[in-house]
Write a structure and sequence with these properties.
Length: 355
């Protein structure tokens, strides 16, 4: 079946483009000190994670335990949860994953997290593993001083939790459009992480894992000798917003196929709104950038731009989501496309796994 004959709105995934993105990242990292543990929040399907691992990734990063469970069901890992896991329900799910033999590490930032992990270990007889999240300037989660990080590492060891290292994601830098500013913010964050790493080394607690970076900053981080791994996610599909920031570095693999349902003098309406497409990173656009979805209602997109006048009701329009991760999270299936032909369908097994 031709992709443009599919019912809409639906997600198209160009498998050749995605494979090129995976290969391009893998070959860039081949001789770098840092290795890739790609973030699963982007593809959310084992079909992609499996290909990333086959291309040399050393494991998979996730945001949520629900994503980790999908990977464990698929037999994929080792898994790094780059997030704090809080509350007895989640701690017990983590212990259940360990009991199944999953190699899984979670992030901690405070004594609270260490205590919960130790209590979960006591209840289950499992030995959890953790890294310490450092705040390198993003001001989301993370320790704020080397002394705090050292104290926490000591607490992990004393509590019998396996201490595996640190992470410091510079999310405030990754989408900055100005390359010099992006590099500068990333460098500042990396130097904070380095200070923490040095303080840990001084007390004999050198981190095995030092995990940083996103798609917008990986080239700055990959060269740092103290960084062991990168957490990039978006590179694999390269959404619209990242395409504007890093033109030509990777290619857009993901698009939303829509159908024109109405034509007016200066705009057209497509059948995709906020329930199948997101726009918090800007207006979704066609690949050539000529048409954009200037406004989204729940189930309608206002299409404007050059070429609108030639659209007819029933025409198909492919939009590149500005933010792929939140768009694909609304869907259950990738229609896998090669040369315009649907060659497979992959369930997005971790869609909406936000617990
Ligand atoms: C903790 C963490 N690590 C890494 C990333 C990298 O993602 P990307 O490659 O999409 O910038 C993100 C993005 O949200 C994140 O939250």
């Amino acid at each position: 079946m031709r992709a443009h004959d599919l019912d809409t709105p639906c997600l198209l995934l160009d498998i050749d483009v995605m494979e090129r993105n995976i290969a391009s990242m893998a070959s860039y990292l081949v001789d770098k000190p840092a290795k890739l543990r790609p973030h699963f929040k982007t593809p959310k399907t084992p079909e992609v994670a499996r290909r990333q691992l086959a291309a040399g990734a050393i494991g998979i990063t996730v945001a949520k335990l629900g994503e980790a469970e999908v990977l464990a069901d698929a037999g994929l890992g080792p898994i790094l949860v780059a997030n704090q896991v809080v509350g007895p329900q989640k701690i017990d799910r983590l212990m259940a994953l360990l009991a199944r033999g999953a190699d899984i590490t979670v992030a901690v930032e405070a004594a609270y997290h260490v205590r919960e992990l130790a209590e979960g270990a006591k209840r289950s007889g499992q030995t959890p593993a953790a890294i310490i999240e450092i705040d390198g300037g993003m001001h989301r989660c993370g320790t704020r001083s080397p002394a705090e990080t050292v104290a926490l590492a000591r607490e992990l060891v004393a509590a019998g939790v396996r201490y595996r290292g640190v992470m410091g994601y510079e999310g405030h830098a990754v989408l900055l459009p100005d390359e010099a500013e992006r590099r500068e913010k990333a460098a500042a964050s990396l130097s904070v992480v380095k200070e923490h790493v040095e303080a840990l080394a001084e007390v004999g607690l050198s981190p095995g894992i030092v995990s940083v970076a996103g798609t917008g900053t990986f080239e700055f981080a990959a060269e740092a000798p103290f960084v062991t791994e990168l957490q990039c996610g978006s590179y694999v599909f390269m959404d619209g917003a990242y395409g504007w920031v890093l033109p030509g570095r990777f290619e857009n693999a993901l698009s939303l196929l829509t159908t024109v349902i109405s034509i007016r003098d200066d705009y057209a309406v497509a059948d995709a709104g906020m329930k199948s497409l997101t726009n918090e990173f800007g207006a979704p656009r066609t690949k050539d950038g000529r048409i954009k979805a200037a406004r989204l209602a729940e189930e309608h997109a206002h299409l404007v731009g050059e070429g609108i006048e030639s659209l007819r009701i029933g025409d198909k329009v492919e939009l590149i989501p500005s933010h792929g991760d939140t768009t694909l999270n609304l869907h259950d299936t990738y229609f896998v496309v090669r040369d315009g032909e649907v060659v497979d369908q992959w369930p997005i097994l971790a869609a909406r796994k936000f617990r």
